[in-house]
Amino acid sequence: MQRLSTNDVPPRDRLAYLHDFVARHVAGLRFRPADADSFDFDLSAYFLDHETTVGTACYSAVLGERPRDLMADGRQDYLMTIHTTDYEVAIAGKAPLSIRAGDITLVNEATAMAFALPNTLLKVVSLNEARLAAIAPRVRMQPFHHIPAQAVGASLLTGYADLLRAAAPDGVAGRTLAGNHLYDLAALVVQGATDAAAEPVRTSLGAARLELVKAEVLRHLTDPELTVTAIARSQGVTPRYIQRLFEQDGSTFSEFLRDARLDLAVRSLDKGGTEAISAIAFDAGFGDLSYFNRVFRQRFGTTPKEIKAAALRRRQ
């Protein structure tokens, strides 16, 4: 992960550092702050593989462009962006287009563009043109694609990209698999999310949705009332669909929830604090202490009391 913010460099050098960071990690762009005296930015970039970058950028109000003189860098990959506020973008010198917050834009870097951003959080993914076109030929029909947030597959694509930013996979194999999912989801929305387009990427769709479901479970892990129905409602799918995703992964929703809560409890016990075992169990989302003790022993081959006692001995 690479990061840069206005706190890292002197005011006189901020634009130079900004231009260099963006050019190295995403594309050659030129920025002009709406107010140079109060211009702030905070950027991050994670390299999923040598072809793909995922990142975020938080800007004060700014004007930006990729003019023709900067296109001498020869880049022709696609920039996928999602903003948290409405903004305007002009492609190839044409009249500006209004883009709503949450919409996806996909623009080829070989195309001149200009944009006006209010104070915004920008989410960006750099996608290799040839790799995307191989599974989404329609992308080459035009240099700019505007995909409304309500389009079929759009929320899954943006959600999965957010997940990669928040919890980047470790290791080459994990990054490769995540990258394949990301390209498949991008292809789905570019191709129009028809059944024919979805068929080649059905595996990636399921895997991406399962990762989002797991992340949602972990966010609400300590809620004792958490159910597959509640998770399904938040994801806009049916409980049975979620159950099938876990079955295809060799597990069940209940097993994942139970094991995640056990992992949380054992971490708390291993700290060797003064909190009662019953409180730790309830804080992890278990509503039945006898059930907690039983499944804990089945999972770890020991009891919560023994884990806590060992942790206390280490602290002495």
Helix and strand succession? EHEEEEEEEEEEHEHHHHHHHHHH
Q: At the first level of CATH, what is the class of the domain at 2-149?
A: Mainly Beta
The CATH superfamily of the domain at 2-149 is identified as Jelly Rolls
Number of strands: 12
**Principal-axis shape:** elongated
β content, as a range? 15-25%
Could you say what the CATH architecture of the domain at 2-149 is?
A: Sandwich
Describe the structure.
With 316 residues, the protein is an alpha+beta fold. Among the domains are: 148 residues, Sandwich (Jelly Rolls); 59 residues, Arc Repressor Mutant, subunit A. The chain contains twelve helices and twelve strands. The chain has a seven-stranded antiparallel β-sheet, sandwiched between helices. A hairpin with a 5-residue loop joins β7 and β8. α4 crosses α6. The chain is elongated and about 70 Å long. Keywords: DNA-binding, Transcription, Transcription regulation. This is AraC-like DNA-binding protein. InterPro entries: AraC_XylS_family_regulators (IPR050204), Homeodomain-like_sf (IPR009057), HTH_AraC (IPR018060), HTH_AraC-typ_CS (IPR018062), Tscrpt_reg_AraC-type_HTH (IPR020449). One of its GO terms (molecular function) is sequence-specific DNA binding. Pfam families: HTH_18.
